[in-house]
Amino acid sequence: MFGDLLRRLTAPDPAPLAVPDARIALAALLVRIARTDGTYSPHEVSRIDRILASRFGLGPFEVVNLRQDAEILEEEAPDTVRFTRAIKEAVPHDDRAGVVEALWEIVLADGERDHEEDALMRLVAPMLGINDRDSALARQRVENRG
C-alpha cells in the first residue's frame, strides 16, 4: 500500500517529503513509539489522535484515517531511522522540538516510562537534531501538563 513512500524513505539520499507524506511519517513514528513497549492502548491511540488533530488541524474523520494509514505504514516500514530522517528533512528545526514533545506525550500517555520507550527516545531525539537537554525539557513540559 505504501510501497512508493517506503522506497523514498529508504533511498540513500531521500528528498524532502511533501506535506501528506511528512504527516504520515510523523504519525507512523508516533505509532511506533506507542507500540515499543509491546502494548498499544486505547489511551495511546486517543493521545495520537489528539496530537495529529492539533498539529495538522484535522477533523475526527481525517485523524482516524491518518492514524490508521500510519499504523499500516509502521508495520511495513523497516526501521525507525528512516522515519526519523524523513521527518528531520520535512520539518523545520524550530518545529522538531514539538515533534519530540509529541513523542514524549505518547511515551507518558499510559503513566509509565518503559525502558524500550526511553531507549527509543534517546535514539530519535538526537536524530531529529534535538539534544538531550532540550528533549528532557520537552518531557518536563509534558509531565507538568499531565
Automatic annotation (TrEMBL):
CDD domains: terB_like_2 (cd07313). InterPro entries: DjlA_N, TerB-like. Residues 23-140 form the Co-chaperone DjlA N-terminal domain. Signal peptide: none annotated. Pfam families: TerB. This is Putative tellurite resistance protein B-like protein. It comes from Silicimonas algicola.
